[in-house]
Amino acid sequence: xxxxxxxxxxxxxxxxxxxxxxxxxxxxxxxxxxxxxxxxxxxxxxxxxxxxxxxxxxxxxxxxxxxxxxxxxxxxxxxxxxxxxxxxxxxxxxxxxxxxxxxxxxxxxxxxxxxxxxxxxxxxxxxxxxxxxxxxxxxxxxxxxxxxxxxxxxxxxxxxxxxxxxxxxxxxxxxxxxxxxxxxxxxxxxxxxxxxxxxxxxxxxxxxxxxxxxxxxxxxxxxxxxxxxxxxxxxxxxxxxxxxxxxxxxxxxxxxxxxxxxxxxxxxxxxxxxxxxxxxxxxxxxxxxxxxxxxxxxxxxxxxxxxxxxxxxxxxxxxxxxxxxxxxxxxxxxxxxxxxxxxxxxxxxxxxxxxxxxxxxxxxxxxxxxxxxxxxxxxxxxxxxxxxxxxx
Length: 392
Fold this sequence. Notes:
Layout: E1 2-4, H1 10-19, E2 23-27, E3 31-35, H2 38-47, E4 53-62, H3 66-75, E5 87-95, H4 102-121, E6 126-127, E7 134-141, E8 144-150, H5 172-182, E9 189-192, H6 199-209, H7 230-237, E10 250-254, H8 257-270, E11 276-280, E12 293-297, H9 307-324, E13 329-334, H10 337-343, E14 349-355, E15 358-366, H11 372-391
Parallel strand pairs: 5-6, 5-7, 9-10, 9-12, 10-11, 12-13
Antiparallel strand pairs: 1-3, 1-4, 2-3, 4-8, 7-8, 13-15, 14-15
Helix pairs in contact: 2-7, 3-4, 5-6, 9-10
């Protein structure tokens, strides 16, 4: 099987798949391949926070043109999956000089499936773009073609809990990936001081409690497959034995009352209000936070703000981080190096991520009081003491 993801999250997804018992896990570009049975297919859809969709390949072949694609696709025994009463849609992803138009590849694939049934039964299954019974996926890289069944349907980032959103909300898969990249799993408080509609807060709470991301989802595509095992899926989806307690809180704030109103609606829809605290609060007025915590934020990148205002914003972010978040790790995603420059701190870690079409950097700042040299000395002494204490 193949789990698709966003650029930069492949390692996180591979770890998730290994944790739920997948075998032969191998990292690719924006994807992770793995092996498993039907239960693993269901688990991957239900449990993986950083997967966009789970594909089940059914045939691999080579083709130099769309006519060859048509002939090879038509050879597939489609009545193993579809009937003439079922509906389907074809999605094509093409990285090839021989195939210049992905829509034409999808069109020829659709024709091949329809003609297979007409030749055999003199009747064709219907194509339905919205909410079809089967999602067919064809991927072409150079002349290597893979036809798969998409077991997810709608992208898995559509968890089902979001009922209200701000402009350009953070993708849920990206939000979960950002949190998992920090290594945080609920061992301290979580703070997002520019929370928008609350996506980071909700994903953080679900990670801390180990609530599967599929619990709010109404349907997965595999539930319409001919071989769907409803008892097996109910066993997987109703098993909450891995959930755990969360003894801290997720604190969210935003300068916009409208954004906090939307975040509140989303949080209430998840029944996580016990763990998430929201307030209208400009970051420049942020009070001293709880002593134990991590800061993760997605500030504006500049699409709807002037350069001067943007630089002032990031300068203020750096000032607040330095003065009131001592002892924290602060993680920030942004699109422009100039923005990071305004923060005025040296990052401990930096990594590339994609937010929509924007290539971004995700940076970690280790915040401390005093000089860097003194801080590192204290940290090293504490580590030596802790190691000796554990050894005793």
